[in-house]
Amino acid sequence: xxxxxxxxxxxxxxxxxxxxxxxxxxxxxxxxxxxxxxxxxxxxxxxxxxxxxxxxxxxxxxxxxxxxxxxxxxxxxxxxxxxxxxxxxxxxxxxxxxxxxxxxxxxxxxxxxxxxxxxxxxxxxxxxxxxxxxxxxxxxxxxxxxxxxxxxxxxxxxxxxxxxxxxxxxxxxxxxxxxxxxxxxxxxxxxxxxxxxxxxxxxxxxxxxxxxxxxxxxxxxxxxxxxxxxxxxxxxxxxxxxxxxxxxxxxxxxxxxxxxxxxxxxxxxxxxxxxxxxxxxxxxxxxxxxxxxxxxxxxxxxxxxxxxxxxxxxxxxxxxxxxxxxxxxxxxxxxxxxxxxxxxxxxxxxxxxxxxxxxxxxxxxxxxxxxxxxxxxxxxxxxxxxxxxxxxxxxxxxxxxxxxxxxxxxxxxxxxxxxxxxxxxxxxxxxxxxxxxxxxxxxxxxxxxxxxxxxxxxxxxxxxxxxxxxxxxxxxxxxxxxxxxxxxxxxxxxxxxxxxxxxxxxxxxxxxxxxxxxxxxxxxxxxxxxxxxxx
Length: 535
Ligand SMILES: Nc1ncnc2c1ncn2[C@@H]1O[C@H](COP(=O)(O)OP(=O)(O)OP(=O)(O)O)[C@@H](O)[C@H]1O
What we know:
Layout: H1 2-23, E1 24-30, H2 34-45, E2 55-58, E3 68-70, H3 76-79, E4 81-87, E5 92-97, E6 100-110, E7 117-126, H4 130-147, E8 151-156, E9 165-171, H5 184-196, H6 199-205, E10 211-217, H7 223-234, E11 238-240, H8 250-258, E12 264-268, H9 293-297, H10 309-317, E13 325-331, H11 339-342, E14 349-353, H12 358-369, H13 375-386, H14 408-411, H15 418-421, H16 443-450, H17 472-485, H18 493-502, H19 507-534
Helix pairs in contact: 2-4, 5-7, 8-10, 12-17, 12-18, 17-19
The structure holds adenosine-5'-triphosphate (ATP).
Domain BCS1 N-terminal: 2-178
InterPro entries: AAA+_ATPase, AAA_lid_BCS1, ATPase_AAA_core, ATPase_AAA_CS, BCS1_N, Mitochondrial_chaperone_BCS1, P-loop_NTPase
GO cellular component, one term: mitochondrial inner membrane
């Protein structure tokens, strides 16, 4: 009876499998592949999925998966939080797609080592038509790309076995927010655009379809920011290759590079830092594993990577190197790089980033204090148009191409003398000899600090405080004065940005105090350089 029963069970089971194979198409998506994200996004958009009764709740990835907003009863702007529904593990779901039944199962498979897990999503569609699967994939990919339109995705690799892993999605940074010498950003963007559209040209001539850019120069001058901005502009994902990552050796580096997708930006930051002695062939101990005792005694951080220069060179243009990728490398020590690394084919375009020029300082100031265009601001602007003394609508002569952030409506107000026109006139503008050399709390902030017995005690600027709304003429005049006080090519853009951050709401005081700040910065730098020389 027992064997009869078992035979019948097996027969039924294989009949069922044969039936499934004959009438269903089954596809498995693993979370180590991009298609997993497409399908997750696609599922989250399906109307029949929204009625699922057994789901896992997630608050991450809400930007990419179709999310449900949960509001509190009171104030939705402050209390709303988005969540998304994911298929629960080991649960089967039924969906309908173009009148076809579809089963979905999500499973988690522990890795042998037990450290990381692999997830799969299995889709079984009741159809004999393979075109349906292709259509689902196409829809899923298009939907995912659309959801990512205003974002860039950053990938990293944690260890050699896991390959690339999505680290985060970031909003795109507009290219014009990076203030460089005229034409620099455009040069790189146009170069990449032209490269990406020249695949056939390379194929016909048998030249490897790869291009490398080396951005070198002063720290804090916008190298990384430009790369992220270009990624957004061209819709490319960024794959960060950290050469000093522990456990990375020549073989795993080559594997990682050959695993890159065809169109992407591979980014190696501070390429010199991975090699203790500088990236140079003349220093045979380039790899950190071969550091001398003297080096180990020094205070400098010990790099942990085990990549050698020849390993890097092979990974960049060996036979396994991915075609179609755009490589960006950044360094602050251009001269310490080996010539072989810098040669065309590996790094085709070398772009120098200098310390801030007056031109850059001026633009940075303008961007920093330009009011954000908002519906309420334009409403205010149109109100002010009606209340001008002449009662006429004045024609704007402002150059809108210069900086889109500057609010045109505000600029139409007649220019007023700087010292009296600010809605919150600053006591320290124009600069007086007695103004404090370094940022000090404004009159209101001091007041807040001193009378704090009844409230919180703090020093600094509360985030909700806003800079006074300045007209275009005011901003231009202040920016020109600010730039005049900044010495040509002496300070980085990052440090200028840091200074302006301290004066987030006080443009007049920023201009008044910048000279003293510059002096202090330069003195500190000279001191640090002297110390370094003495060592
Ligand atoms: N040219 C610039 N225009 C606008 N902002 C800039 C510029 N340069 C630097 N910044 C600002 O300074 C900060 C640091 O910039 P970033 O990391 O791009 O510099 P970096 O050159 O890559 O520095 P490092 O060589 O130290 O990595 C960022 O917040 C960025 O917004």
